[in-house]
């Protein structure tokens, strides 16, 4: 046994000796001095090493040197980042945190680097720590809110608030345990809830695995808070990596899991269960095991699932997946090639494509129209490993569906019933009163296909890789098959020539021709980018705004160059013949530069980066008679993004800079105001920033739905367990990607102007503002949805609330609902920090007029 009292003494002696060592003191002071000199010479790497040495030797100087040390670290990290020396970057942060383990600024900054490198879990851990150290640290708060959605997805709140689902799972588990399944594994435990149900039901042994680090840590907290830390073994791993006896001592008699997404298989349940049957579960209760003791056989909850599908017409889905307009702004799109979303369920599975998106059909703006009755697409028994294994080699199944209503085929919608056991099931159907989303398999054919009653739709169901795939392949009309998949093959040609109408054959051949071109000219855009292209008001507004600016700049120029000549002549004069320079720094795909160029007298710079997308712009320029040299790709000339807003040439300033100011999710883009200030410095006289102004509007609402999606509600424990306080740490006060038009809510006020952001004059912006709004009816204010009126130029504006916009809305969810009576005045304290809006609401006891 080491002598417990001897060590501290030794330590004290060592420390005393250290303090008195003159050589050491000398080294410390010379290192500090060198550090400062290097800092002055901007040699941050050397400065950093000097600081490390000095502060490790003499921790007493830590407080004194903290600021300069941080500065040095951040500069050094920036440098390492820019040259891609990532390992060294993180090593430097580690060293810094060894010296200053509780420094929230260093933690937050390291989190930002981790986030940029794609280590979201780790990044969030750092932001969380920084915030715990200093709860009022706005940078860490903003960062934490930004990643919280990734870490603990919002559906956790919905699921925990879904009492029906909780109870059904609990009852099924209780029944199984009581019937003798006494060793249990919870795959994908999340907060630990199903594992705790098994323990509470009396299971002798409970194991639970979770692959997300954050969720695993959360589960540990929850399980401990419920006094079960000794009795549930939590593992931070994917079930596929688990082995007996390394991770669990022996095979279990029950696996419980809810690792299913809206498309059923997206979380890998098939693979997990095949692995579990081979490695983690006792043999199934079948054949010779039919009457064996349940503790000696294995089973799974849920026992199986039935998947349903239905063809739908839905404008909201259509405009997110294919081009629905022939003109965008002033541009004809005829030569664009095929533009579509990457969500595709082609018969050859391709990893880069997701086969479906998810939507809550009942909440789609504009609704949807069912074109067929719901049909059963698949039945699967989770207790039959042969069936699970056979799924990927199952023949592609063809189903013929009678069309019941006329309409355009936009998508196949999919949902399922999860059979927990023989008696109980959960449904994720669009008409159920649950929070589940449905899977949406969009149809891409460029020309929409109109279905009619008496048609039959042919759908193929397959499961060749991990995903369930549904594809509408053909329509049978009047006995003829019309293929919907665009790759026409010989078989189709044959079928047409059998029917023998010559014209049809010719058009099929023509189609074949264009299809080949289209494959070559295929360009995939994000769903939000597709919706943007289809957003006509935005492009039209922009077109008019640009025309006005150009007219104004050129009139000014005409006046300067001597008066009475008209604009036509002006082009020939040296002065006014000069081009106007327009820069579009929109994120992602944007046609705005081209729209500017199409106005004439403009040289436009686009920030589109991807080659395929640049090709689309070039094709469109060509087909819209825009000379090639009038469109440049800005980033092609740039070494790094920092030079982003540099002027086009030394003598020339920008006539217009287009900023992309609102993200699809409904939030103001980060660093928008910084970009606007920078942009203003680079404008020629009379030059303009698009948009010039953004007005933020909001409204008081009572919406229980928003509460259910934000935090576990109510004082009651969840199934008797204490879970809410732990998961609610991940509550974020701003809800994004909201569809205000279909949000179930009561409106408690008119809309009110919350804020004005003037991009042409940032100094005029306030960061705090008090706004008064009168309640129009009584209720509980639970949230304040907000949106923007984006003023492009003078009165030309677009609203992010408009139905056909590509934007969603956001909402501030109040920490405490506020009870109001009709006529009450509510005082809103609106704050804008960087690009994050926060709002606090109080009843105004001394009502007065609006400020
Ligand atoms: N989505 C439902 C539920 N995991 C998705 O890390 C909710 C959809 C939904 N852990 C609207 C509403 C709702 N081994 O924490 C996750 C995940 C983990 C695993 C260990 C594995 N093999 C896995 C696989 C997943 O399990 C947890 C749950 S999975 C996702 C559930 C009403 N739209």
UniProtKB/TrEMBL annotation:
Signal among keywords: no
GO CC annotations, alphabetized: cytoplasm; nucleus
KW Transferase (keyword) present: yes
Region (Disordered): 1-28
Compartments in which it is found: Cytoplasm
Composition bias, Basic residues: 7-18
Domain Protein arginine N-methyltransferase stretches: 745-836
EC identifiers of the protein: 2.1.1.320
Reactions catalysed, as given in the entry: L-arginyl-[protein] + 2 S-adenosyl-L-methionine = N(omega),N(omega)'-dimethyl-L-arginyl-[protein] + 2 S-adenosyl-L-homocysteine + 2 H(+)
GO biological process: methylation
Catalytic class of the enzyme: transferase
GO molecular function terms listed in the Swiss-Prot or TrEMBL record: histone methyltransferase activity; protein-arginine omega-N symmetric methyltransferase activity
Any Pfam family the entry gives: PRMT_C
Start and stop residues of the TPR repeats: 104-137
Keywords recorded for this protein, A-Z: Cytoplasm, Methyltransferase, Repeat, S-adenosyl-L-methionine, TPR repeat, Transferase
PANTHER family: PROTEIN ARGININE N-METHYLTRANSFERASE (PTHR11006), PROTEIN ARGININE N-METHYLTRANSFERASE 9 (PTHR11006:SF60)
Protein name per the record: Protein arginine N-methyltransferase 9
Gene: prmt9
């Amino acid at each position: 046994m080491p002598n417990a009292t001897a060590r501290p003494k030794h330590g004290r002696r060592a420390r005393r000796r250290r303090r008195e060592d003159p050589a050491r003191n000398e080294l410390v002071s010379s290192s500090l001095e060198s550090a400062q000199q290097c800092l002055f010479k901007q040699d941050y790497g050397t400065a950093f090493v000097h600081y490390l040495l000095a502060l490790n030797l003499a921790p007493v100087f830590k407080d004194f040197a903290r600021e300069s040390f941080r500065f040095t670290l951040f500069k050094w990290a920036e440098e390492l980042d820019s040259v891609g020396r990532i390992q060294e970057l993180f090593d430097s942060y580690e060293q810094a945190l060894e010296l200053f383990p509780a420094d929230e600024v260093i933690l937050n900054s390291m989190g930002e680097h981790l986030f940029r490198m794609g280590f979201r879990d780790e990044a969030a851990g750092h932001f969380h720590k920084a915030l715990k150290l200093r709860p009022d640290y706005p940078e860490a708060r903003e960062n934490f809110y930004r990643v919280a959605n990734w870490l603990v997805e919002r559906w956790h709140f919905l699921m925990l608030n879904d009492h029906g689902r909780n109870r059904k799972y609990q009852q099924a588990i209780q029944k199984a345990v009581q019937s003798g399944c006494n060793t249990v594994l919870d795959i994908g435990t999340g907060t630990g809830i199903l594992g705790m149900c098994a323990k509470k039901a009396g299971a002798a042994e409970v194991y639970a695995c979770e692959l997300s680090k954050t969720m695993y840590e959360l589960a540990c907290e929850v399980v401990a808070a419920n006094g079960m830390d000794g009795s549930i073994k939590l593992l931070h791993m994917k079930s596929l990596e688990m082995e007996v006896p390394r991770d669990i001592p022996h095979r279990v008699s029950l696996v419980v899991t809810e690792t299913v997404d809206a498309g059923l298989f997206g979380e890998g349940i098939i693979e997990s269960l095949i692995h579990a049957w081979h490695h983690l579960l006792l043999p199934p209760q079948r054949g010779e095991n039919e009457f064996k003791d349940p503790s000696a056989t294995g089973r799974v909850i849920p026992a199986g699932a039935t998947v349903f599908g239905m063809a739908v017409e839905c404008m909201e889905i259509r405009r997110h997946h294919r081009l629905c307009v022939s003109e965008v702004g002033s541009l004809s799109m005829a030569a664009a090639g095929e533009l579509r979303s990457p969500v595709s369920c082609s018969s050859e599975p391709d990893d880069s494509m997701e086969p479906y998106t998810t939507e809550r059909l009942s909440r789609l703006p504009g609704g949807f129209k069912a074109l067929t009755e719901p049909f059963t697409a698949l039945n699967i028994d989770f207790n039959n490993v042969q069936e699970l294994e056979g799924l990927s080699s199952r023949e592609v199944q063809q189903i013929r569906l009678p069309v019941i209503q006329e309409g355009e085929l936009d998508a196949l919608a999919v949902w399922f019933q999860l059979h927990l056991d023989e008696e109980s099931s959960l449904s994720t159907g669009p008409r159920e009163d649950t929070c589940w989303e449905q899977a949406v398999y969009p149809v891409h054919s460029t020309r929409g296909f109109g279905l009619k009653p008496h048609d039959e739709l042919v759908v193929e169901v397959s499961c060749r890789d991990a995903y369930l795939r549904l594809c509408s392949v053909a329509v049978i009309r009047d006995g003829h098959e019309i293929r919907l998949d665009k790759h026409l093959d010989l078989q189709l040609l044959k079928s047409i020539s059998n029917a023998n109408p010559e014209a049809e054959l010719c058009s099929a051949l023509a189609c074949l021709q264009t299809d080949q071109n289209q494959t070559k000219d295929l360009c995939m855009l994000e769903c939000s980018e597709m919706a943007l292209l289809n957003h006509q008001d935005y492009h039209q507004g922009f077109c008019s705004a640009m025309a006005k600016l150009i007219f104004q700049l050129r009139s000014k120029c005409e006046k300067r160059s001597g008066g009475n000549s008209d604009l036509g002549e002006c082009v020939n004069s040296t002065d006014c013949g000069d081009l106007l320079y327009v820069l579009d720094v929109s994120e992602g795909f944007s046609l705005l530069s081209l729209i500017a160029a199409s106005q004439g007298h403009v040289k436009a710079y686009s920030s589109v980066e991807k080659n395929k997308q640049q090709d689309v712009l070039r094709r469109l320029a060509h087909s819209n008679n825009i000379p090639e040299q009038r469109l440049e790709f800005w980033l092609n000339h740039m070494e790094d993004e920092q030079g982003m807003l540099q002027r086009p040439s030394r003598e020339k300033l920008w006539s217009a800079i287009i900023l992309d100011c609102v993200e699809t999710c409904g939030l103001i883009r980060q660093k928008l105001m910084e970009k606007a200030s920078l942009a203003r410095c680079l404008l020629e006289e009379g030059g303009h920033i698009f948009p010039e102004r953004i007005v933020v509007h909001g409204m008081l609402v009572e919406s229980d739905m928003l509460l259910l999606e934000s935090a576990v509600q109510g004082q009651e424990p969840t199934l008797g367990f204490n879970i809410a306080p732990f998961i609610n740490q991940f509550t974020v006060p701003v809800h994004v990607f909201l569809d205000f038009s279909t949000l179930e809510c009561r409106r408690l006020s008119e809309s009110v102007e919350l804020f004005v952001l003037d991009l042409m004059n940032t100094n005029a912006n306030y960061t705090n503002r008090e706004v008064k709004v009168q309640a129009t009816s009584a209720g509980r204010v639970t949230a304040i949805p907000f949106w923007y009126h984006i003023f492009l130029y003078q009165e030309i504006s677009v609203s992010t609330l408009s139905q056909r916009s590509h934007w969603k809305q956001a909402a501030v969810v109040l920490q405490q609902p506020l009870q109001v009576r009709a006529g009450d005045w509510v005082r809103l304290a609106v704050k804008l920090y960087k690009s994050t809006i926060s709002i606090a609401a109080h009843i105004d006891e001394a009502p007065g007029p609006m400020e």
